[in-house]
Design goal:
The chain is of the alpha+beta class. It has 13 helices and 16 strands. Helix 5 (about 140-155) runs antiparallel to helix 6, helix 5 (about 140-155) packs parallel to helix 7 and helix 11 crosses helix 12 (about 370-380). The longest helix is centred in the middle third of the chain and has 17 residues, at about 220-235.
């Protein structure tokens, strides 16, 4: 899912350049400047914190060794000479050689470079190392079973589960073309693995692309990712059934719940009741082919959607949390008659809570400076905000530190099974 998913031009195929296309291009330029395909900042080359005497540090390390007797023993001996304790070990067989993945506990004063040098002297090649934390102490089978359980309960969990399975990576979903075609793009049913890129056939006919430029995928990781996608396909469409009934400040009751493509008709009817100004503030341009882009936005494949309903069941608001590669976008639309009642703020707070629970470090909203309601709602989160203006389009990014994430996560999210 990319920023362009939320603009109507992208969803209605390419047409000659117009003002909205220029806005989209500006957003893409902003994103390119902001994100590069480089190792994460806390990788091996980043400055390490000052060591604490007597303290230990957890490290995750991968290295490739020859598949022959004694190669692993040589590595273990080299690590033992530096008082590095091996807490866990996974092996990833290759056509030639084996990738050994270690979780190490080493003296705090031992730098990553010293560990890498020792491993290299013992026969390891293509060594990669980064700091680990307590979450890495969970053994691989337990972690994978937990991710499978999350995916089984909620189709929108698949991208997050893949990211937790594979580490820091960029995940994008390409939808199937309109008219029932399949966006296979040459991807076989069993998927395709090419060094740092894997492509998997999504259940609905699209393609899920996973990229990790700083570390090649192994066949073992590819098989695990493919198994999660196959589980998702077998279970079919599903969202949690939880819902919250709230009373707004002016006394009206509303129900907030998760939504998916089964809410397409109600969502389209709400859009037909919205004014041109409301639609323009949400989509930044002319709105057409509502069935197609709403079906896309409501799909759990590309994120999570919350809906607001009146006691009569009428849908009056939609909030989207959209997976955008390694970022997360929030978007909200509220029917005109229900604006300025706190509905948008309620939706936004819950979307950000979902992002925090999913481990997202930030969320962004693409809007216009004239959309005072959205700007006020973002400020009302009480989070640190960054502002970017490109070609008249305002991008507001809310950063989620751990304390902020815990505070925001205390909100209900209408997502309990």
């Amino acid at each position: 899912m990319t920023r362009k998913v939320t603009d109507v031009r992208h969803l209605n195929d390419c047409r000659p350049a117009n003002p909205w296309q220029r806005v989209t291009a500006a957003l893409q330029t902003w994103r390119t400047r902001r994100h590069e395909h480089a190792p994460p900042s806390d990788d091996t080359e980043s400055p390490a914190p000052e060591p604490v005497p007597g303290a230990n540090t957890l490290w995750r390390m991968r290295t490739t060794v020859r598949d022959e007797p004694g190669s692993l023993a040589a590595l273990c001996t080299a690590l033992a000479e530096h008082r590095a304790d091996i807490l866990s070990l996974q092996t990833h067989p290759l056509a030639e050689g084996t990738v050994d993945e270690f979780l190490l506990r080493a003296p705090g004063e031992l730098p990553a470079s010293a560990i890498s040098t020792a491993v290299q002297s013992a026969g390891g090649t293509d060594t990669w190392i980064e700091r680990a934390d307590a979450h890495d102490l969970v053994d691989a089978p337990t972690r994978i079973l937990g991710l499978a359980a999350r995916t089984a309960l909620d189709a929108a969990e698949l991208p997050l589960a893949l990211r937790q399975l594979l580490g820091r990576c960029t995940i994008r979903s390409q939808p199937a073309p309109a008219g029932g075609g399949r966006a296979s793009d040459g991807v076989p049913v069993e998927g395709a693995l090419d060094d740092t890129v894997m492509r998997l056939r999504a259940p609905e006919g699209g393609v899920i692309t996973v990229e990790r430029p700083y570390l090649p995928f192994t066949p073992t990781e590819f098989a695990r990712a493919r198994a999660l996608v196959e589980l998702d396909a077998r279970l079919g469409p599903r969202v949690p059934h939880g819902r919250d009934v709230l009373t707004l400040a002016e006394g009206s009751d509303i129900t907030v719940r998760r939504a998916d493509t089964r809410d397409l008709e109600a969502a389209r009817a709400m859009h037909e009741r919205c004014s041109d100004r409301t639609l323009k503030l949400r989509y930044h341009g002319p709105v057409g082919d509502a069935d197609r882009y709403l079906n896309h936005l409501l799909s759990p494949r590309f994120g999570r959607t919350l809906t607001v309903q009146t006691p009569s069941g009428r849908l009056v608001g939609l909030g989207h949390l959209l997976w955008d590669g390694d970022e997360t976008e929030v978007a909200v639309i509220v029917e005109d008659a229900w604006q300025r009642r706190g509905v948008g703020g309620e939706l936004l707070g819950r979307l950000v809570a979902m992002a925090a629970e999913g481990g997202c470090r930030s969320v962004y909203a693409v809007t216009q400076a004239s959309n005072t309601g959205m700007v006020a709602a973002m400020r009302g989160l009480g989070l640190p905000l960054d502002y970017q203006v490109e070609e008249g389009t305002l991008v507001i990014t809310a950063r989620l530190s751990e304390p902020d994430a815990e505070r925001v996560s205390s909100l209900g999210n209408a997502s309990a099974p």
